[in-house]
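Rather than argue in generalities, we reproduce a single protein record, letters for residues, whole numbers for local backbone shapes, just as it appears below:
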Amino acid sequence: VAVYVPASARWMKSWPSQMLINCGRNSLVIFCLGTVLSFISFVAMLEGGRGLEYQIAVNGIGIGLLGCTAWWLMQRKRRLAVGVSRVAQPPAVPNETRPH
């Protein structure tokens, strides 16, 4: 996809595309969460039924949770990056007069 789709494509700025990009940037956490949600969804479908509406609801909730988690992780990384850049800059030290 990175070879055939230019990063400047207008549809890459849409929220579904940004959600997929955020999931890709946090792929390990999203994979682990998806594994846990898959097990929870399996149990929910065993208990609640296997109707089409129920499947759509379970999958929609799971995809929503994955997308929200990826968004939250990106926000957290941005906040941490701003905090680190503030800490990384040394405080301004006034010119001290040295004794000769």
Notes: The first helix runs from residue 15 to 25. Helices lie at 15-25, 27-48, 52-88. The two ends are 66 Å apart (CA to CA). The mean pLDDT is 86.
